[in-house]
Amino acid sequence: MVGGGQGAFIGNVHRIAARLDDHYTLVAGALASTPERAYESGRRLRLARERTYASYEEMALEESKRDDRIDVVSIVTPNYLHYPVAKLFLDAGIHVICDKPLTTSLADAKDLQQAVAASGRIFTVTYNYSGYPMVRMAREMVAGGCIGSLRVVQVEYCQGWMAEKVEDSGSKQVLWRSDPEKSGPGGCIGDIGTHAFHLSHFICNERAVELSAELSTFVSGRRVDDNAHILLRFENGAKGMLWASQVAVGEENGLRIRIYGDGGSLIWTQENPNYLLYSQRGKPQQRLSRGGPETAAPGTAHSGLPAGHPEGYLEAFAQIYTDTARLIHAHRESRKPVSSAQLAPGVLDGIRGVEFIEAAIQSSANAGAWISLKL
Amino acid sequence: MVGGGQGAFIGNVHRIAARLDDHYTLVAGALASTPERAYESGRRLRLARERTYASYEEMALEESKRDDRIDVVSIVTPNYLHYPVAKLFLDAGIHVICDKPLTTSLADAKDLQQAVAASGRIFTVTYNYSGYPMVRMAREMVAGGCIGSLRVVQVEYCQGWMAEKVEDSGSKQVLWRSDPEKSGPGGCIGDIGTHAFHLSHFICNERAVELSAELSTFVSGRRVDDNAHILLRFENGAKGMLWASQVAVGEENGLRIRIYGDGGSLIWTQENPNYLLYSQRGKPQQRLSRGGPETAAPGTAHSGLPAGHPEGYLEAFAQIYTDTARLIHAHRESRKPVSSAQLAPGVLDGIRGVEFIEAAIQSSANAGAWISLKL
Amino acid sequence: MVGGGQGAFIGNVHRIAARLDDHYTLVAGALASTPERAYESGRRLRLARERTYASYEEMALEESKRDDRIDVVSIVTPNYLHYPVAKLFLDAGIHVICDKPLTTSLADAKDLQQAVAASGRIFTVTYNYSGYPMVRMAREMVAGGCIGSLRVVQVEYCQGWMAEKVEDSGSKQVLWRSDPEKSGPGGCIGDIGTHAFHLSHFICNERAVELSAELSTFVSGRRVDDNAHILLRFENGAKGMLWASQVAVGEENGLRIRIYGDGGSLIWTQENPNYLLYSQRGKPQQRLSRGGPETAAPGTAHSGLPAGHPEGYLEAFAQIYTDTARLIHAHRESRKPVSSAQLAPGVLDGIRGVEFIEAAIQSSANAGAWISLKL
Amino acid sequence: MVGGGQGAFIGNVHRIAARLDDHYTLVAGALASTPERAYESGRRLRLARERTYASYEEMALEESKRDDRIDVVSIVTPNYLHYPVAKLFLDAGIHVICDKPLTTSLADAKDLQQAVAASGRIFTVTYNYSGYPMVRMAREMVAGGCIGSLRVVQVEYCQGWMAEKVEDSGSKQVLWRSDPEKSGPGGCIGDIGTHAFHLSHFICNERAVELSAELSTFVSGRRVDDNAHILLRFENGAKGMLWASQVAVGEENGLRIRIYGDGGSLIWTQENPNYLLYSQRGKPQQRLSRGGPETAAPGTAHSGLPAGHPEGYLEAFAQIYTDTARLIHAHRESRKPVSSAQLAPGVLDGIRGVEFIEAAIQSSANAGAWISLKL
Q1: Does any domain span residue A187?
Q2: For chain A, what is the mean pLDDT?
Q3: Shortest CA distance to D73 belongs to which of D321, D356, D301?
């Protein structure tokens, strides 16, 4: 693991996710940006001292020399480090699990795509919301024609925790997120908007080809956007609305998607994720539950929990790890991975997220002009 | 009443609304576009034969001659008749309750505004959703500073009943709604989008000054839009998203508004209208219920029903009628009406709705260019 | 109308309910227990002075002499007056709509049943919750076999407004409700428990044959029960639980019923009454909406409102009035009334409610001994 | 671990729960009732062959001889084995985590209580629903006086999966559950009723002192109850209703509790467990969310997930494991454990569950006579 030491939030989530299905053991890490904090973080996680590294460069170098070297590295640093760290480990022949957004510029992202291709390694991006069982079921249903031809996508991701100037609190979380040098030019659009964007592609399997955006910064003194209103046009003619906000007081982690086709619709809400509302034209609305009747989604990989036993955020996150483990197993055995593993978001999903951020910023700077998305 | 004969939907709603609070008696009507249907409709409603008219022109002429002439006329015709009918009755010195949208062109709407001013008569427009008690409470709360300074407005009105080519069914309802000659150039944007637009103004008391629109027609052969994606900019710098759709399969009458200020937020949903979700920054979400604790909204005028006794669409519609009755009483007695009555939507609300439709069409025809709203 | 003058709550509800479908005109009344308040109440309702009576005895006497005498009387007095008033008007050959519970003793109730039979008049009891469209649909579905053979009934009616000693407020509403002389021996069990009991019979069409009860009075100084826990055994072997409470802080008007058969289940909640949740064994839960797809229930009689336009308490109450009007029309024309009208609760439903109250009190006084219900 | 081999459900849940917070490593097991299945199950879990035992007797014997012997054993067998297995390991000086219900008879349960006391070992029972953060918050709130003096408890646990004769399917899960020799005399009452009973004690911290029960078996040929209707009397005078059912078609895992005091109320629903509805007398209902504003409950031990990131069944289950680990650490260091750990259900909770089952069966066999609960 690179990053994720003391004071970090997402690092611990990655570790639990890795542990949940019993496919991973954490054996090495460059956990923090100073040697002291890196060593202390490693000690707390009971890492061997010799595999607790002072820097990611050292880690890549030393691990690549070991016989028992790591199979895969998790990159959970601030965004601006994703690119150099990922590249170094790919070059060392090590598989990569990388947090999103992929990089802080589209040029870096494309470069990384080439590095992945050249390395022949597995590379997954933790668009973790795509790991929810009912999200995967929604994707399957759309692919199977359950809603007919796609017409309208309404997706939103709203939070309220940045409604005031939390930057002044001194929290590490907030500091790097609101610093364009570390998180990239997008604020809310990059931090959560990319999740919403990915989710709509993941479920609908239809590419957005143009967008028009209105980005706003409501909190005075903030250096990045904190609210994004975006219109989308999809390849097949469908239209979409995407709302991302971090100033929506009262909202906690409100990722929600509603998709409408000519024959039916699906609604999924992250905060109550075990259900999917399904309407067919001329029929009453059905509530499909994870593990419930007529449901293809039996739960995330590890649990197989029956209906009514709620699964949550960690289980969905773990699904991406399990998918990656399965991809690595298949890679090692030179066979095709199981189909669910192939759903793990890859480098292409990563690049599209970066293109989305850049296009939104460009459109917003040009009075909402429609910008093409090409990837 | 003009319009509202056999086969009409909204006419009966207006009649119940008028009756609910016992302020009105229906005594005269020009209920249909042919004399036969007009007479038959009048007979069924137990109107006196002599006050059942073959045309609205006849009705305006004859009623204006009577000593016991009508106080007020309800106009519930297809949209294109609102203008000539309203004008004729205003000229005859009769108060007017008119369905929305006000007219089929902005020029007509402005002309009507002048006619109202010249006549000195009461003129209300049935933006009926503003009659819900919790909508009025939301307005009061916003005015009282409960959410602080307005930042984001998310409003939507989605239905699914036109997801297929219902025009082919031959239903009168559908036919005039999808005929630009009768309903005006807007389809979904005029029929339901204007309700959403009005609601956001009514609650927030903040004027939208610019919009960018993407109108779509998904059903092949349809002559008007059936989905509208609109971005709004408000006078104080707030930003909004408005979605109106009649092809959202599974949605019934999904009018919903969420407004976020720097200090709090409010959420209201028409399909479960007795509740308002209120969040203050740093406090748990509260569910305010009509008639419940700490609630200024005791129910619509007529009922005073305690909390937990749900009120619905008819009660809210009746509120507009009661407000109008109170305006007329005050007008007769040359005094100021009670404050709730002053909330009844008037001709200015009507014109703004028409301007909204025209601006949306113009923006959509120009790749989403931002169009100013001036009224 | 007898009762329902100034300060009364339910009288106004009855008047709106009567007006809603345009089958009734209020022409006479003995509206209060003193002549002064009776006259003043009549004046406010614009009753003719000569038909505003000082007492119900006078009203029955005088009306029975008139050629244009009333067709039907609404009895909306405190409970202890239902019996003498109803009897007097039946004897005068006038149809009766009576509030619930029918009487304050089972003996009176049985006597009234005979009086109804002897009079040949229409007699309905305002178990108003049975007027909701989705309640009627539930009944139809059960009758049609949608849930299979009935096994379990969970019904509850919980309110919180009497959690403190509201008797001390001096409100008329509370005073008679908590006075056994005026409301009968049951408190919560009579006021709201009977509604829950009736609802379960109405929907399931299965008779409870035994009950075991635990009544409690939580508020010190209260003279009647304020919480009732009751077990039910139905004729076909099904088992039930009934909870009624007026001390459930936070609850407003929480009438809810869930019924389970061997093949399916239905859930209905009064506070969001336009929906019915339906599960079949091995199928996802469906949300049936009033006026929606595959729904037999098009709305209450008057409105025919489409799905998504919520109907509420007043509309359901009006349904009982409309049913009664239809029964009276059919009676006048000596023909069978339409089937929906036959669903109006009658005197037998009224007696059963009184038997239920007495049995619950008896069981509770005997450590929850099972008491037979015979009617 | 004893039990939990191939084909078992709850064993895997225990293993994930143990792993989640990184306090446990699985090193030994007697996983199945035949040596072949035991070895094969051990192999799949990558246990060392020498610590994969053919029987629990062998495991207790061999482990107690080892220097690196297990600290704690998880007992996840069918109910009838809890007693002998727990006793053997306690005698060997090993801490125990035992599934519920504790034993199949009250005599065994009391005997086990003595064995626990004599051994001085940590003994926890996986009443896992008490591990949910919002359940713990509810307990804290009640203790802190947030609802005032307790009056009414409505608790229910309803499932539908046994609505038909699933015993005929041959599933191991069902077979032992419906066999009184293996699961004890209670069916639904033991399997899920005990969870509901424990939850009400856990949150309210008020002991039920009497119960009256009506147990039913709806599915023909079933050997144990599948529906339980129970009335409760609490020590302080509060009254309760408990409903447990496995024939409630459409219900999945419907554990829900509502508690009402003279000053407020709390509602919690397992299927959407991250929220708690809180009403104070005279105030609007609040929705408290895990990790949200004014919430003491930051999430389960391991995660610290912020509000809106749903936690579920596994996290709550893991909490019991983490609590136990903390108890063991404190035991080892002869200090007081942290207070949250002390909330872990212990042997007294276990015995009370067994007493509850026996009392319910006795009451039901005696026409619902009130039976005292003494423990």
Answers
A1: yes
A2: 95
A3: D321
| Sign (positive or negative) of CA dihedral C47, C53, C57, C59 | negative
Measuring CA to CA, how many Å separate C374 from each of C196, C212, C230, C348, C352? Answer: 18, 14, 17, 12, 9
Contact A268, A255 (CB under 8 A): no
Residue C284 belongs to domain spanning = 133-305+348-372
CA dist., res. D293 & res. B153, Å (int): 23
The Cα C125–Cα C83 span in angstroms is 12
> What is the ipTM metric for this complex?
0.95
The pLDDT value recorded for residue D8 is 80
Task: Mutate one of D20, D305, D317 to test the A interface: name it (highest A CB count within 10 A).
Answer: D305
Q: Which structure tokens are listed for B257?
A: 């508004």
Tell me the one-letter amino acid at D146.
C
Domain tally for chain A? 2
Burial class (CB in 10 A: 0-12, 13-18, 19+), B205: exposed
Taking any CB pair shorter than 8 Å as contact, residues of chain D touching chain A are 9, 12-13, 16, 19-20, 22, 159, 161, 251-254, 270-274, 289, 291-292, 302-315
Distance CA D260, CA D277 (A): 12
Q: Quote the tokens at residue C215.
A: 């009544």
Q: Which residues of A touch C294 (CB under 8 A)?
A: 282-284
**Cβ-based interface (< 8 Å): residues of B facing D:** 278, 282-289, 292-295
Q: Domain containing B277 — which CATH number?
A: 3.30.360.10
Greater confidence (B154 vs A339) lies with: B154
Query: What is the nearest CA distance from B372 to chain A, expressed in angstroms?
Result: 13
Which residues in chain A touch residue C289, judged by CB atoms under 8 angstroms apart? 284-285
How do B275-280 and B285-289 pair as beta strands?
antiparallel
Peptide bond into D180 cis (omega under 30): no
pLDDT of res. D28: 97
A100 in any annotated domain: yes
Q: Give per-residue pLDDT as tens, D172-185.
A: 778 888 889 988 89
Distance in angstroms (rounded) separating the CA atoms of residues C255 and C266: 14
Give a yes or no: residue C258 inside a domain: yes
